[in-house]
Amino acid sequence: MDRDGLLTIASSHTPVVTIDRLMSALDAKGITVFARIDHAAGAASVGMALRPTTVVIFGNPAAGTPLMQSDQRVGLDLPLKALIWEDANRRTWLTYTDPAWLADRYGLGDEAKPVAARLAAALAGLAVAATSP
Fold this sequence. Notes:
The protein has about 130 residues and is of the alpha+beta class. The protein has one domain: TT1751-like domain (TATA-Binding Protein), CATH 3.30.310. Helix 1 (about 15-30) crosses helix 5 (about 115-130) and helix 4 (about 100-105) runs antiparallel to helix 5 (about 115-130). A hairpin with a 5-residue loop joins strand 4 (about 80-85) and strand 5. Helices cover about 45% and strands about 25% of the residues.
């Protein structure tokens, strides 16, 4: 994890396949996908080039609301997001913010830390499902 609480995992797949696998994993867990933002398509629409770069915004109100009950400002970082992107070497990556880091960022009390830990474990599982061979 870097200093900004971001976790980045190498994918064994192309960006398209990684996104498809993430979407399937989210669907299998009954997690709502709120949006899918294709930044490369946005760049192309204004005549600019950008390697594949897509954000998937997803969540479950039952899981995230307890964090916002501790501090509503957490709503700036919820729902959860995953960034799937391709680097200059055509390697695919999946990046997300660690919910445990969010709990620290917002100074959430001890009652919120287990919730953040459960979210962190769930996100790690989704990331593995999307990126593993």
